[in-house]
Amino acid sequence: MYYVHRHAIYLLILLCALIIIVDKNFDMRSQSGSIFFVDSTTVKKIRAEFETAKKGGERIKVLIVPGHDKEAGGAVFKKVSELGLNLELGGKLEELFLTDTRFDVTLAQDSKGYNPMLQTYFTEKNDQILEFRRQKHLGMYSIQKTGLVQSNVQVQHNNAPGDTVTKLYGLNMWANENGIDLVIHIHFNDTARKNVRSAGENSGFALYIPDHQYSNAAVSKNIAQNVYVRLFDRFPQSDVPPEKDGILEDQQLIGLGASNSLDAPSLFIEYAYIYEPQFQSSVVRKLWLHEAALQTYLGIVDFFENRERGVGETAVLPYSWMQDLSMGIKNHPDVLALQIALNLEGLYPPQGSTKNDCPLTGIFFECTKRAVKAFQKKYHLEASGIAERLTRAQLHILYGK
Asked: Could you give the domains of the chain?
């Protein structure tokens, strides 16, 4: 072990020397805590810290960052804005962490704007943030010139406005200074379309994590794998290549620590496409976002507890179905709750269909009808495809309030 450790130190010394030789303007003091290929934390270490938090010690510090802001609101489809979705889901996720005494959560912004503490930090530390960003970029450029770190671009992202970029680097700097243990960035996706008033064809979520060469990569990947399992229980993963793999490394997203600028593990989650139909009804949207927040929270707890995912944990059930449900009903919370109950039964999406074919939407079309028929057959009811009185009675036995 001593032999490996000693030679690792020699390699780091050589690396630092190469950087200084390549660019005499590079300030190594600004790079502390974020050395390429050297983990800023480990799974063992962060889980040990969680065990300490469980016993009443220092809590795990989580920073939730709903993407975009009032100056750069992100995508818009009809009356639904990405910023609005991000803020609503972020607020739900904050509520879940606030009820858990093992975590100390900071929400970067809400509907009123940025967290006053962070806004003050952005203002008072603006020059330092700009220098932090400059040094990180310079460090990345210098180390890439040595060939020790490779450029790795899988997905091209839209460029953020300059002020937003500064705030994002400011969040990384603040997280480093305040010992944040986990950063979660919340976003929704969109695709270029000729007619922006019409929905696109793609759907599903994607989870981005830091490039494997970054110091926060290893633990980020472990956490992401747990969150992915939870999200995929309910939601389709993106059907856009290369997002079809579900979890993607990224070198450019600032929220993940672009230029190795973030010590804490970080997740950048695109939960769905903004034009997906479940967001057009405020009632259905609220339930869907609560479900997405819960599955994210549970995935993170799964990681810290080092446990297998639970079965049947949902924010929507138990539920009371008060009316018959049949083909053609749209944007209805009863239908969304029905779809989730059928999902827990292993019947939704129905056999032969994928989650992209049959997502959770609150809309009763062919997918839901087929799943209801399968449910009725399973419980020896008339397979009408209509959630009538007897079918609802069986649902209440299993999932009712």
From this structure: 2-305 (3.40.630.40), 333-399 (1.10.101.10)
Contact yes or no for 169/125 (Cβ under 8 A): no
User: CB–CB of 225/295 below 8 Å?
Assistant: no
Tokens 């997280």 belong to which residue?
A: 175
Degrees (nearest 5) of the Cα angle 42, 13, 179?
35
State the amino acid at position 263 in one-letter form: D
Place of tokens 């967290």: 115
**Which residue has 């001593």 as its token pair?**
2
Residue 147 CB-half CA count within 13 A:
0
196's CB contacts (< 8 A; 6+ apart) are 77
Which residues contact residue 23 at a Cβ distance below 8 angstroms, ignoring those fewer than 6 apart? 138, 141, 142, 145
Distance CA 86, CA 82 (A): 6
- Asked if 102 and 299 touch (Cβ cutoff 8 Å), the reply is no
For residue range 266-324, list pLDDT tens digits in order: 999 999 999 999 999 999 999 999 999 999 999 999 999 999 888 789 999 999 999 99
What is the pTM (predicted TM-score) of this model?
A: 0.91
Distance of alpha carbon 138 from alpha carbon 131, whole angstroms? 10
